[in-house]
Write a structure and sequence with these properties.
2 domains; about 100 residues; about 55% helix
Length: about 100
């Protein structure tokens, strides 16, 4: 199964788009990357280059599906702690 990424988080519905000459440059860069392992800056517009990695490397280095959920839960917990600190500070000031 072939793999191709744009380097960001394996999101679905992402495309590499371009005009005919841009896509031909991408094809040339891909052919060089298949032969040599990588191709750096062959007029790929905003992309630095193309690199070939083993399927095992790509599978092992995927971002976890639970990462957004964990970051969201951590944000809620931190906001709650900040609320408690603020509430405690307000009560501390009320003593004076």
């Amino acid at each position: 199964m072939p793999h191709l990424k744009d380097g960001s988080d394996y999101q679905m519905n992402r495309y590499i788009v371009g005009d005919e000459s841009g896509l031909k440059n991408l094809i040339k860069a891909c052919e060089i990357a298949i032969e040599k392992g990588e191709c750096i800056n062959l007029d790929l517009d905003g992309f630095e280059g193309v690199a070939k990695y083993d399927a095992k490397f790509l599978k092992d280095n995927q971002e976890s599906q639970s990462t957004p959920f964990i970051l969201g839960a951590l944000s809620v917990i931190l906001m709650f702690i900040l609320f408690l600190v603020l509430l405690g500070f307000i009560n501390f000031l009320a003593w004076f």
